């Protein structure tokens, strides 16, 4: 019987040899679902067997984490040193950084952890050049900073490696809900008009992933890739920013070429002259989407000078965990003033989502 790796290879070859058009899209979707399922089994075997080789374990710190990803020798270490004051080794040859090196950038009251990753090369998602270990560490980041330079700016290669490793840049998880059942087959309900897939195709791909009885609710116009991503269950959705280094060495009309090849916005920088580096700090901060929460002691005045900086979408629980783990254990209720409150001083629980400039008072039990 063929190994999992051999089965995956055979299915990938079938995709490569199949002409891509509307008529084959459904068939390709079923193949992708089978590949996703096999890869999940493959990863489970590695975990159980203790295999998988060397891994990077980085303790997250600060208010958010940025993974700095680029080709070898595009200036990642120099950029880390400027942004954080770290001492990542810098040299004019490839693969200087052989470990993931963390640093902390303090900006506008936030402490942002930045991870200098070893350079990624083509085939990284399959383990080439320690790529799998690097990408595993990147999956835990809150944002990915893609870095190229004026000589090496085809970042589509990096994006493909990240995609193959289950990282979806600048996307939201598909709005799908599946509740397994004991019988009845696949019952599908959609709240939007489906233009990219038929209900039959959706049900067929779900069955290809081994689910034969379930209630499925779809709230967006999905395609085969987003459905397979949902079924795989191991995708991460991370925002990104792009910077192109060494603009002090630019030649000819390279700006136009970079813009055409990237097909997206980028920030021109130079670690040698510091061009654009302060703007990059601001871009990272804005892309992370921080909010400020002002703490108010019970019966006292709010501290409007030193806000607590948190990621957008943070809850009262996030504040408690940030302050001290005992705040969660001793929590009774909280009072909120601001945009997230229905009325001033609203009493809320741990899961209440906070908004920028909220004032928060946490009431705890007596020890």
Quick summary:
This protein has 367 residues and is an alpha/beta fold. The protein has eleven helices and 16 strands.
How is this structure best described in words?
It is a single chain. The model is unreliable at 47-54 and 91-97 (pLDDT under 50). It is globular and about 65 Å long. The protein is α/β, with parallel strands linked by helices. Helix 1 runs antiparallel to helix 2 (25-49) and helix 2 (25-49) runs parallel beside helix 6 (199-208). It folds into 3 domains: 4-52 and 174-232, no CATH class; 64-169 and 236-288, Rossmann fold, CATH 3.40.50; 290-364, Ubiquitin-like (UB roll), CATH 3.10.20.30. It has a 6-stranded mixed β-sheet, with helices on one face. A 5-stranded mixed β-sheet has the order 13-12-16-14-15. Strands 6-8-7 form a 3-stranded mixed β-sheet, covered by helices on one side. The protein has helices spanning 4-17, 25-49, 76-84, 131-138, 156-164, 199-208, 224-232, 254-262, 277-288, 316-323, 326-329, and strands spanning 64-70, 101-107, 110-116, 143-149, 167-169, 176-180, 186-190, 214-218, 236-238, 240-245, 267-268, 290-295, 308-311, 331-337, 346-348, 358-364. Helix content is 32%, strand content 23%. It has 11 helices and 16 strands.
């Amino acid at each position: 019987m063929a190994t999992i790796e051999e089965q995956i290879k055979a299915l990938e070859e079938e995709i490569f040899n199949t002409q891509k058009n509307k008529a084959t899209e459904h068939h390709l979707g079923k193949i992708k679902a089978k590949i996703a399922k096999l890869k999940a089994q493959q990863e489970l075997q590695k975990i159980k067997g203790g295999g998988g080789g060397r891994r990077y374990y980085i303790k997250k710190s600060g208010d958010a984490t940025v993974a700095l990803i680029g080709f070898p020798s595009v200036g990642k270490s120099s950029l880390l040193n400027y942004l954080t004051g770290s001492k990542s080794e810098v040299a004019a040859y490839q693969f200087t950084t052989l470990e993931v090196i963390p640093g902390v950038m303090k900006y506008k009251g936030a402490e942002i952890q930045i991870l200098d990753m070893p350079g990624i090369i083509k085939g990284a998602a399959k383990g080439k050049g320690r790529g799998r270990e690097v990408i595993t560490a990147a999956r835990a980041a809150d944002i990915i900073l893609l870095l190229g330079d004026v000589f090496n700016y085809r970042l589509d290669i990096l994006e493909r490696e990240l995609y193959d490793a289950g990282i979806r840049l600048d996307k939201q998880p598909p709005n799908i809900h599946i509740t397994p059942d004991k019988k009845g087959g696949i019952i599908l309900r959609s709240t939007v008009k489906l233009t990219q897939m038929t209900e039959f195709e959706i049900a067929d791909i779900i069955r290809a992933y081994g689910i034969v009885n379930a209630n499925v609710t779809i709230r967006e116009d999905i395609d085969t890739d987003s459905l397979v991503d949902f079924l795989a269950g191991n995708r991460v959705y991370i925002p990104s920013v792009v910077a192109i280094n060494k603009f002090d060495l630019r030649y000819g009309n390279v700006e136009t070429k970079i813009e055409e090849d990237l097909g997206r916005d980028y920030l021109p920088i130079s670690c040698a002259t510091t061009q654009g580096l302060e703007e990059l700090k601001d871009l990272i901060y804005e892309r992370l989407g921080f909010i400020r929460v002002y703490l108010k002691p019970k019966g006292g005045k709010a501290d409007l000078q030193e806000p607590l900086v948190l990621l957008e979408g943070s809850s009262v629980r996030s504040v408690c965990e940030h302050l001290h783990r005992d705040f969660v254990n001793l929590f009774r209720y909280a009072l909120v003033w601001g945009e997230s409150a229905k009325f001033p001083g609203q009493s809320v629980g741990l899961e209440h989502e906070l908004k920028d400039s909220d004032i928060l008072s946490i009431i705890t039990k007596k020890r």
